[in-house]
Design a protein that fits this description.
alpha/beta; single chain; Metallo-beta-lactamase, Chain A; seven-stranded mixed sheet; 14 strands; 313 residues
Amino acid sequence: MKEVGDGIIRLTFALPLGIDHVHCYALRAASGAWTIVDTGLGVDDAGERWQTALQALDAPVERIVVTHFHPDHVGAASVLANLTGASVYQGTIDFAQCERAWGSGRSAERLAEHMRKHGLPAEETDALRMESDALASLVHYVPNPEPLEPGDRIDRWEVIHLPGHADGHLCLLHEGILIAGDALLAGISPNVGLYPEARPDPLGDYLDSLARIVELAPRIAYAGHRETIDDPPGRARELLAHHRERLEQTRAALRRAPRSAYDVSLGLFPEPLGPPLRRFALAESCAHLEYLALRNDISRLAADGVVTYANAL
């Protein structure tokens, strides 16, 4: 627990994932109570972790805000709500996706088929299904959250929609301070992947979100992972340049012959990656390929249930 700004406390929880921590934030409300932003993963000891954190706060929690539905941000929402009695606020777009991903209608098979269609080797799909089911067991979202829309206000904070990393990703902005979730990270690029039953152009959404951050020009951003960002517009410009370079690399990968997104990912992300990170690389490669295909810069081809991409004729 660390006070990072006036009335802003950062709470950091360990994660058993590819990234080893997540930051949640306590924001002092006008009433003197606290608003908690994000909840961490719903691991077995999430209640004990949050109980320790709550005991260190000097006032009760009056509301909980979820920036987006990814497990490390929404996973302990019901745990924290039960401990505090506070209402959970979540974007309407994001909650719909949360239910599709983690609710009773979720389908690990749907995700596996999506990945297989884009070239994931068949022998890796069984592991994907098992890992997806295991991750779902760590997500305890609230079934009827208070709905949030862009432009709403949470106490003094304006709700800003910055999609790309997640379709309904919301951030909070007040007097140049951005509570950024995973919309902006220091040192690493937030994963921008194409997944089933999501918006068709996540990279296009994310590039627009980065441009919006430049336009809003916050003076500081408190992110869901890694360090505080002291120049958010500058970091957004760096990420815009990164994705422009990645798009050029994606085009270059198709010069010789049509290729699946999985094959392209091996060139874009050549470092050795374990299966979960390789699937993130595949999803991000899909997002870059679809960005180009939707703008007719490359062609999307489908045969025998497999999608490949080629240079446009």
